[in-house]
Amino acid sequence: MNRHFDLEHICRLAHLRLEPEEKAKLEPQLEAIVAWVGNLSRLTIDKKKSEVKPQLSLPLRPDEVRPSFPAKAVLEAAAESDEAFIKVPKVIEER
Amino acid sequence: MRVGLTGLSLIDLSRLVRQGEVKAQESIEAYINNIKEKEPRLKAFITVTEDYALERAKLVDKKREKGRLAGVAIAVKDNILTAGIRTTCASRILENYVPPYNATVVERLLAEDAVIIGKTNLDEFAMGSSTENSAFFPTRNPYDEDRVPGGSSGGSAAAVAAQEATAALGSDTGGSIRQPAAFCGLVGLKPTYGRVSRYGLVAFASSLDQVGPITRSVADAAYLLEIIAGYDPCDSTSARQSVPAYAEKLEAEIAGLRVGYLDEAKVKEASKEVREAYTSLLHLLEKEGVTLIPFDFKLWEYALPCYYIIAPSEASSNLARYDGVRYGFRYPGENSLREMYALTRTAGFGSEVKRRILLGTFALSAGYYEAYYGQAKQVRNLIIEEFEQAFQQVQLILTPTTPEPAFPLGAKVDPLAMYLSDYFTVTANLAGLPALSLPVGLSPEGLPLAAQIMAPAFYEELIFQLAFFLEKKVKLNRN
Q1: What ipTM was estimated for this complex?
Q2: What is the CA radius of gyration of chain A?
Q3: Please, what are the averages of pLDDT over each run of 10 residues along chain B (479 residues)?
Q4: Do B325 and A89 touch (CB under 8 A)?
Q5: Is A29 on the interface with B (CB under 8 A)?
Q6: Over B211-268, what HEC string results?
Q7: Which positions in chain B touch A8 (Cβ < 8 Å)?
């Protein structure tokens, strides 16, 4: 199954870039791990028995207005901010 | 300073402070002195909150009505949010992150007048079994400084074992409380999923994570769980169940208990000393009138690969939020948004975190989702069902906690070899069950050996009772 493991594609999906040395180290490790976890496919599963059981209840808290974090505290944690906004690089890229 | 304050149990120390026989300040100063002496070698803490802790201790001393944790020093794993105190997850990406709020568990400690003495080291984002994956430094085992303290809550365990804290909080996604507790000769409990609020615990794998106590005795673990457990409206997965007075119900009749144990085939990969300690524990229980029932768990071998699909899948999703926008590190320079995301994450995450994000991204990707994540979810359901069947026959299940005692620093470079450390512990997380590790002996080299007691969901009380009994029976030469 791991023949199809395309590290570059997975890196793009995960927003990660690997240096050639890191890639050379990680690729065989990941292939070995994927082959190992792939052992699960050897199990023949009776779909009826393994159906997902719904949790008994996950009650939500009352839909009431509550105080939120002060904007200042939230903005302080951001990498860059400007008055009431978090600053990000330009989202629309030129082609 | 009185000699021996740091060696007192959490229950005894808090009682003496409440009774006015010991001042909180005196207690905290004793811990700070211990930290100053031992930290240069052990490195259990990422942040020691000396000034803050002494200030808090003085406030506690001024209070007329003191809480149940008055004057005790609690070390908190650095993936649990503490308002105004840096919380790094041992990652470069959160190196300078100061949370604006406390985790619910921290609020509950503070409400009982506990003093947070510092934030402890861990494997980055709790991913690892040795604390060597910390982006900052490895922590050493107080029993043997050339060995690991276990992980990922290795800093919490080392701090408690070295008397740098009265007790600690850890988090457990696949064994991260129990394995370091085992390596450091301590008691560590992963509570039932939903028993303790996860609000303010930095998410690794949300369906598996739980916060729990690491202590020097069973009674302390029971006492601390009582305080941190209970429903929290901020965590929709926390259970609306009342919390028993665990610490008051430790004495119980053991004879007649039905306890399941793993047959030889399941423990054959464990080291000789672990197998011997396990066997002698079973003999002891049998002599005490416990009914032992062999437990043929068909899917035990599949639990680890199942876990290593589910946990990385959830991690890849949870860690998507670290993109240099809302918190933490941002890669400097004039980059496009996409470039900034990738550069920030590449520079901010360490190797093990990248490995797990990539593995999880793969398992959830188009074309592979059903074969990997879908299959793992089904296997997880079958594991839950096997436990349900087992608990129709037995009340508790006893296993070793780890396949071997603490291993030397740098001994496990192959990630797969490291993953096998979780062989006995991951099933409890997959099934959401409570499980406690307690010391049951020492290896010929003087390293702690441990056993794990598992119970049906919300039966922590029964676990504590057997553990309390065993603790009295198994005398250890603690250092």
Answers
A1: 0.91
A2: 23
A3: 82 98 98 98 98 98 97 98 98 96 98 98 98 98 98 98 98 98 98 98 97 98 98 93 96 97 91 96 97 93 97 98 94 93 97 97 96 95 95 98 98 94 97 98 96 98 98 71
A4: no
A5: yes
A6: EEEEECCHHHHHHHHHHHECCCCCCCCCCCCCCCCHHHCCCCCCCCCEEEEECHHHHC
A7: none
